[in-house]
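This part of the workshop introduces the protein records we will be handling. An example says more than a description, so a record of this kind follows:
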Amino acid sequence: MKYSRQRELILKTLQENRIHPTAEKVYDLIRQTLPNISLATVYRNLNRLSDAGIIRRIEGVDGIFRFDGEIHEHHHFICKKCGQIYDLSNEGCEDLKEKFAATSGFIIDDCDITLQGTCNKCITKN
């Protein structure tokens, strides 16, 4: 992938803002540094970075994609009430991969789990 200033800024923004932002939020954040960037440029570069495996694309419960600049193997929890996405540790994934490999006969390279439910903030609001 060729270098571009916009793409580098998008990646840096994602890595510094661990909030799993939408493309529109990335656009808002980047416009503070690069006011002339277009929303189409942000979308195009997010998709290219995601397709290249440099960032992760996560579909929220609302059907809107959010982006994660942290690509080490980890999992996500999505709150069905507020839509917030939380990172979860990779703990237990090796056991799952071994179990599924043994029962399916597949070779499993990595594990990407997304759990959904209600986060602590929404639980305490009730």
Remarks:
- The longest helix spans residues 39-51.
- Residues 15 and 110 are 21 Å apart (CA to CA).
- The chain has five helices and five strands.
- The domain at 1-71 is CATH 1.10.10.10 (Arc Repressor Mutant, subunit A).
